[in-house]
C-alpha cells in the first residue's frame, strides 16, 4: 500500500465456501461479492482500497453438506476483530466490510461491536459492515428486475441469475432443485426469515441446499441485479466517506 | 418445575441494566420486557413456562455512562448458550428468548446459531430469539398510538411512554433531554440504524444517553403500546408452538 | 444512580436457579439472599447501593435435576469479573458481593482474585465476596435458633425454615425428603464438607436434591435466623466501610 | 507406572515459586509440600502413587515481588483439569491433590468442580484437593508445638520453622522481617483471612512479603509440625481410600 | 465437489498479506504459493482437490509495517483446526496444507497436532503441513539456480525472482533495499534462523522489511526455482498418497 | 533471587512426564534436560540463573499410553507465555528455554512468538527456545559417539544411553523393544520426521512407545553424548549473552 491509501475507505469483501444446491459452485458467495466489489472499485478507484475477498466464512450451518469449509461463529468474530485491528494499526480510518454471505453478518457485527467497546483506538475510525443485498435492498426490489421471488436467499433465483451472468460455464442448471418453504407464517418464513431469529442448521430448511426458485434464474436478471447493486453500494460508500 | 412444564414454551426475558438518559432508570429495559412477559404469561399461562428476567445484558456500548453493568458480547453469548443448554438438559423442546435490549440481539443470535451448529441435541428443539419491538413491529406503527417518532430506540418516546404507564413514580420527566441525530442519510440513521451496521459506542450518537424525543412520551401512549405488543407476542408464541 | 452513590458500598446479591429437593422452589437461593439484602438495605440505606439479585449462578453440579439453569464455573468467573469492571468504570470504590449459593463461591473468588492481579485500576478498590451464612456464622450457631442440624447446606432445615417464613405459600412440606449422608468421616462430611474439597455432582450426595433434615424446619426458626443474619451482615458491611 | 499402580491413590503435590520475604527461598512452598508428600509416601508406599511436585503455581498476587514465576488463576485451572484428565485416561480412580500454596486452592477447586460437572468419565473417580495445613488443622494447633502465632500464613513462623528444620542452610534468618496486620477485625484479618474473601495483591498486606512472626521460628517447632502434618495426611488418605 | 473428490488429496495453499520490503507486493506469499499449487494441480489434476489460497495468515510479526493484515498465532491455529474439521466432515482422508508463509508453520502445526490428539475422527486421516521451500529444499539448492544467497527468507532473492517471473509488472525493482544481518553466529542467523527459535518482531531484523539480497533477483532464476519446486511438491504428494 | 541475578540469562529446562517404552521411566525427558542444565550451570554459574525443570509438558500425543501426564498444546503455550511474563516482570532481559521434549517445541515457539507480537515490553528482551539436541546437533553426529542410529528420537539409542549413564539403576534394559519405522520415504520418516509435519498420535508410529534402536544403548555412549551436548549448550548460551 501507499501512504495515500490510508485516506481511502478499506473495503474487505466477505465470502464463503459452502454448498449451494446441486447447481451452483461452493464459491458462489465469494464470486458474487467479489464481482460487486470489483465493479465498485472501477467506479471509486481513487476512494477505496480493495482487499482480496476473504473466502473463509461462518458457514457451520452448512457443514452437513460436503464441500463446505467453515469456522464457527466465535472464531469468525475473532478473525474480523484482528483484521480490523490490522487496519487500525496501518492508520486507516474508514473500513467497510462488504459482506456476501448471510452467516457472516452476526459474527461480523459481534466483532465490530466489541472492537468499538474495547478500545479508544477505534474512536477515530468508522467501521461498517453490511451485506450487498441489504445495502441495495430498495434497488433489488423484484419488480425492477422481473424476479418471481421476493428476496435473495441462498442458491436462489437471485444468486443463480448473477452466477449465470458472471460464470455461466460452471453452472449446472440441469441439476436445479427447489422445494416449498417449511415454515411460512406471519412471524417467520424459513427462507426469508422474519421477525424472529431461529437457531437451526440449513439442512432443516432446505433438503437439497437450495432455497427459493433457482429455476427461474436467467443471466439477464443477473446482469440487471448486478448493475443495481453496484450503483447502490457505490452510493453507500460515497455517503460513508462523508461521515 | 413440574413434569408437565417440559411441554411448555420456555420464555426467558432478556433485559439490561444501563443508563437511559437522565430521566429513566437503569433498569428500564428490564422493567419493560418483564412487563411484556408477565402480560403474555397471563394470557398463555398453560402454554408458557416463564423464567425471571435476566437483567445482566450486553451493554458495553453504554459503559461510558456510570451505572451501567454489563458483560462484553462474547461473554453474553456464552451465558445464553449455557442457559439454553440447561433447558435442553431439562427436556424442554421450545425456547423463546424474549429480548428487551437492542445490544443483546447480536450476541444472543450468535449463541443460538452456534448451539444449533455444535450439537445434534438441539435438532429436536426450536430455539428462537427476538426483541419485543421486532415481534410487534406492525402493531407498533406510530400512527396506531399517536407517536411523533417512527421507531423505538433507547430512552425514547416509546420506552419512556411505557415506563410512565408502568412506573411513573420513578420517572424524572423534568430531566428529559433530546438531541438531533448525528447521521441521517438514506443508508444510516444514527438512532434508527439503517442498511449498515456500525461499530460505535453510544456516547458517539447520544450525548446524554437518550435518543429520539422522550419529551413527547405520555402514559396513555405507553399503555396503548404495551397492549399492542402483548397481543403480538402472544400471537407469535402461539404460532411458534405449532412449528 | 446519583453522583453521591459512588461513595456507597455496592452490594450485589448472588443467587441461583436450581433444584432444591421436592419441597422448595428453584429460586430458593435467590429468594433468601434477596431477603437478606433488602433487610440490610433497610438498615443501611444511606451506605449501600443495592443491585438486583443476579439469579444466574454456577449450578452445573445440579444440572442432573431438571429445572436448574446454570453456567459453568469459568463463565461465572467471567460474568463476575465484568460486573466488577463495570463498577470500577462507574467510579465505585467498595464492592460487596453478597452470596446466597455455595457453588458461586469458588468461581466468584477466582474472579475477584484475577481482577486484583490483572490491573492497577482495582488497587484503590475494596472488593469482597462472602456468603451470608459465612458472614453470619457465629450468629447462626444452631443452639441460638433451636436447630437440630449443625449447618446450613442445601434445601435443608435452615433454608427451608427461612423459606417457610418468607414464602410459606409456595413451599411443599408434604413433599419433604431426607436421607443420611453418604460420607461422614473426620475429614469429610458429604453434606457439610470438611477439610478437603471433592469434585462430585450433587446427585452423588443427595438422591432427591435435598440435604440435611428439612422436615425439622419451621417459620419461627426461619425468622430467628433471618434476623441474626441481617444483623451480622449489617455489622460486616459497617466494618468493611472503614477499611 | 505399573498396571497395579492404577489401584493406588495418585498424589500430586502442588507448590509454587514465589517470593517468601527476605529470609526464605522462592521454592519454600514447593520444598514443604514435597517434604510432606515424601514422608507420607514412606508410610503408604503400597497405597499411593506419588508424582513429582508441580512447582508452577497460581501466584500472580505475588508478582509484584521479583523472582515469582506464576500463571493466572484461570490457566492454573486449565492445567489441573488436564492433569486430572491424564489420570482418568490412565485408569486411576482416586486422585489426591496435596496442596502447599494458598493461591492454588481456588483455581484447583474450580478445576475439579468443572471436571465433575463436564463429563461422566469422572463419575467413577474420587478427586480431592486440600492444603496440608487444612487436612492437618487440628494437629497443627499452636499449643501442640509451642507456636506464638495462631495459623500458618506465608513466610511465617510455621513455614519458617519447617524450612529451618529441612533446609536450614539456605535460610537467611538475619534478614527476617515482620509487620503488624493491616486489617484485624472480627470479619477479616489481613493475614489469617476471615469470613470474607477479598481481592487484593499480597503487596497490600505484607510490605516485605512475609507474614506472621517468622522471627519466632525454630527448627524444633518445624520438626514437630512436620511430624504432626504427616500423621494427619496419612490418616486422611487412608480414610479417602475407603470411600 | 463431487463424490469422487473425497478420494483425492485436499490441497489448501496457505498465504499471507504482509509487507514485503518496498519492492514486492503485500500478497507476495499468496501469489507464490498459489502459483506453485496451480502448477501442481496441472500435473495431478486427478489426484488433488485444490482449494483457493487462504490469504489471511499469521503475520503479526509484520504488523509494524502498514498494509499487513493478520491474525495472532492462536487464532490462526483455530482457523486451521476448523478448516481441517470441515474436510473431515466432508469425508476427505488426506489433507495437505501447502504453506507459503513462514509465520504460518508454527500455528499450523499446533493445529494439526491438537486435532490428532483431540479426537479419534482424525485417526483415519493423514494431515500434513509443509512450506513449499521445505518440501523442495534439496531441489532449491542455490547452486542449481545460480543463486547468490543460501536460502529463501522474506522478500529475498528467491521470492523476488519468482515474483519477477510471475508478476514482473507489479514489481518495483527500483525500490529494492538490502541490509546486512543483525546476528550471524554459528547458532543463529537473523535471516536464515538457526538452531534456536527467537521471539522477535520482524522490524528488529529487517529495517525495511526485506531480507537477503533481492537485488540479485532475476525472472530466469525465478522460473528455474518454480519448476524445481513444482517437481518436488508433485513428488511429495505422490508419496503422501501412498501412505 | 538477588538483584544481580537480573543480569543473568534465565534458563528454564522444559521436560515431560510421558511413557518412554517399557524400559525407560516416565520422567526420562525431565531427567535428561535437567542433567544437561545442571552441567551447564556448573560451567556458567555466574552467567545463568537456573530454574527448576518444568516437568509438565505437551505430551497429549502420548496419552494413549498410561502414565503420561500432559496438557494440550494451546495450554502449554499459555503456561510458557505467563512464565516468560513473570521473568519480564522481575526485570530479566535474557531468557533461554532449554527444551528436552519434542512435543514442547511447537507450543513453546507459539508462546514466544505471540509474546513478541503482543507487547512492547518484550522489545528489550531476548527470548530463545531450543531443544538440547538441536543446539548440539553438530556435536551429536552419530560418528562422534559410536551411535548406530542417525538421530535422537524418543526412548531411543540416544536417550537410553544417557539414561543408562545417569540413572542406570532404574532402567529396565530387559524390557527394551524395537520396531521398524512405519514410513520411510524421501519426504518423511515416521521416527526422524522429514520435510513435512504430520498430525498423528505416537501410538500410530511406535506400537510399544519406543523408537529407534534402544537395544544399542550403552552408558559409555551416554556419557560421551552428555559431554558433547553440555559443551554445545554452554557455547550457545555464551553466544546468546552477546546479542
UniProtKB/TrEMBL annotation, chains A, B, C, D, E, F:
Protein's GO biological process: riboflavin biosynthetic process
User: Which superkingdom, per the lineage?
Assistant: Eukaryota
Look up the record and name the cofactor or cofactors this protein needs.
Zn(2+)
| Pfam families the UniProt entry points to | Creatininase
Lyase found in the keyword field: no
One annotated GO molecular function:
metal ion binding
* Keywords per UniProt: Hydrolase, Metal-binding, Zinc
- Protein name, entry field: Creatinine amidohydrolase
Species for this entry? Geodia barretti
Amino acid at each position: 500500500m501507499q501512504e495515500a491509501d490510508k485516506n481511502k475507505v478499506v473495503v474487505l469483501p466477505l465470502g464463503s465456501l459452502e454448498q449451494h444446491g446441486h447447481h451452483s459452485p461452493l464459491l458462489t458467495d465469494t464470486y458474487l461479492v467479489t464481482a460487486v466489489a470489483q465493479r465498485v472499485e472501477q467506479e471509486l478507484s481513487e476512494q477505496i482500497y480493495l482487499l482480496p475477498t476473504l473466502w473463509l466464512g461462518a458457514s457451520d450451518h452448512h457443514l452437513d453438506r460436503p464441500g463446505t469449509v467453515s469456522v464457527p461463529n466465535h472464531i469468525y468474530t475473532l478473525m474480523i476483530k484482528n483484521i480490523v485491528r490490522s487496519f487500525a494499526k496501518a492508520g486507516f480510518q474508514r473500513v467497510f466490510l462488504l459482506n456476501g454471505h448471510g452467516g457472516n453478518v452476526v459474527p461480523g457485527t459481534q466483532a465490530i461491536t466489541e472492537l468499538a467497546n474495547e478500545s479508544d483506538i477505534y474512536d477515530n475510525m468508522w467501521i461498517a459492515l453490511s451485506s450487498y443485498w441489504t445495502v441495495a435492498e430498495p434497488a433489488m426490489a423484484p419488480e425492477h428486475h422481473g424476479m418471481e421471488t421476493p428476496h435473495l436467499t441462498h442458491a436462489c433465483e437471485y444468486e443463480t441469475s448473477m452466477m449465470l451472468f458472471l460464470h455461466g460455464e460452471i453452472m449446472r442448471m440441469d441439476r436445479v432443485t427447489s422445494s416449498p418453504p417449511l415454515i411460512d407464517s406471519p412471524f417467520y418464513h424459513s427462507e426469508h426469515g422474519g421477525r424472529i431469529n431461529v437457531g437451526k442448521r440449513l439442512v432443516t430448511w432446505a433438503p437439497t441446499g437450495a432455497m427459493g426458485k433457482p429455476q427461474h434464474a436467467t443471466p439477464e436478471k443477473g446482469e440487471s441485479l448486478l448493475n443495481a447493486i453496484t450503483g447502490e453500494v457505490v452510493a453507500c460508500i460515497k455517503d460513508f466517506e462523508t461521515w
